[in-house]
Specification:
Length: about 200
């Protein structure tokens, strides 16, 4: 039973989810250039699921090459809006444009995790959640963004589901941990953690 891993991410939310589930982790951000990887995979017509899986594996393998004896967890989440990947916003104007595009529509949130050891993947898992956004007015979207701190806006891909973001949706189907970027139940199964 493994109860300690390296998390190849600087995500406080992922760290918190692991620790709440009795998995101790050390943070070692992978600093993978996600945008260039996404761009390259999109040119090859890769699906959002493949992109999410590849990024999770790339992050885990990169850190695993430095800490060959340790288990390293890489994770990635992407938003699939009608076949198009929605990336994290670079500024508030872009965040508003993303919300306008998602307004009144259903999108998939895809979260992939990968565990690597010795520089190679030894396990991976991908889960999807479906979220339907309410049909909101331009003013409601602007007011929502005013309530969100810069830190949350750039860390959570426009909505933080455990906070204000929940109010954006009329329907949420799927695992809450998957929506927050880490399907921890499957990780615990793999690591054989029962409590």
């Amino acid at each position: 039973m493994v109860k300690k891993i390296i998390l190849a991410s600087k995500s406080d939310v992922r760290k918190k989810i692991l620790e709440e589930n009795n998995i101790q982790c050390k943070i070692e951000p992978s600093n993978v250039d996600e945008d260039s990887v996404k761009e390259s995979l999109l040119k090859e017509r890769a699906s959002p699921t493949i992109i999410s899986k590849n990024l999770a594996e790339l992050k885990a393998n990169k850190i695993s090459q430095k800490f060959v004896e340790e288990m390293v967890l890489g994770a990635d989440s992407v938003i699939d809006l009608e076949g198009e990947i929605i990336s994290k916003p670079n500024d508030r104007a872009e965040a508003l444009e993303i919300l306008k595009r998602m307004n009144g529509k259903t999108h998939q949130l895809i979260s992939s995790v990968c565990i690597s050891r010795g520089g190679s993947m030894i396990w991976n898992y991908t889960d999807k959640a479906s979220l339907t956004m309410k049909d909101m007015t331009f003013l409601e979207l602007e007011n929502y963004l005013k309530k969100i701190s810069d830190e949350d806006l750039y860390a959570y891909n426009v909505y933080q589901i455990e906070g204000e973001g929940r109010n954006l949706f009329s329907k949420i189907e799927g695992d809450e941990d998957t929506i927050m970027g880490l399907p921890v139940k499957k990780i615990k199964e793999y690591l054989n953690i029962t409590e």
